Amino acid sequence: MPITLYELVGRDEGRPFSPHCWKTAFALAHKGLDFTTVPTRFLDVPAIENGVTRHVPLIRDGDRLVSDSFEIALYLEQAYPERPTLFAGEGGVALSRFVERWSTSTLHSFIGKALLLDIHDRLGEADQAYFRKSREARIGATLEAASQQREERLEAFRASLAPLRGMVEAQAFIGGEAPLFADHIVAGALQWARVISPFRLLEESDPVAVWFERCLDLYGGLGRQVAAAA
């Protein structure tokens, strides 16, 4: 029986956009596991699986429910040890935890503000009202104001990617010659931006952009199954 993945969508059910859900989709594909997806909107999340979680991703694997993208990856590694590894040992788990924190502080902190208005505009009317109220309370500004500041902050954001840039110039993936969950963490954040907004985060020649293109080609081009936002 395929694993079920609940993933976040807006008006277009064929355009899942959560970075955390993309991490999980990449992890499932990395393991070579069959899975089906359940498009889930913001206001639908509290009702899924009898209210077991407040956030997606959530997977159902038989009788087992697991939420949180990192916990899901750990579960998949333990439950399916015979399949391609997501971590390559405890060192890879530690690496992925570091990358998760770096991604949150560097990628999510910029993308999460810069693209708020783009995300809002792709939601249904009820979700738009929820999203605007909750995000404007969180950032202390309007979505429009946050969007207007992104051009000013873009150069500094690109400069902040120097550690990742140096790594992927020297090797194919964060995991080395092959991807690990650490790659999926960062690719999930960039995929979030790619599918939700036409705003260009990276120049095409940037080694990070070249690495991301390699990630989009993985698993039969899973990431490319959703076209870039236009």
From TrEMBL:
Iron-sulfur among keywords? no
List, for all copies, the residue spans of the domain called GST N-terminal.
8-84
Q: List the keywords (alphabetical).
A: Transferase
Q: Which Pfam family, giving just one, matches this sequence?
A: GST_N_3
Record has Transferase as a keyword? yes
Task: Extract one GO molecular function annotation from the record.
Answer: transferase activity
Q: Which domain of life is it from?
A: Bacteria
Q: Provide the protein name.
A: Glutathione S-transferase domain-containing protein
Q: Which organism is it from?
A: Nitratireductor indicus C115
Q: What is the lineage of its organism?
A: Bacteria, Pseudomonadati, Pseudomonadota, Alphaproteobacteria, Hyphomicrobiales
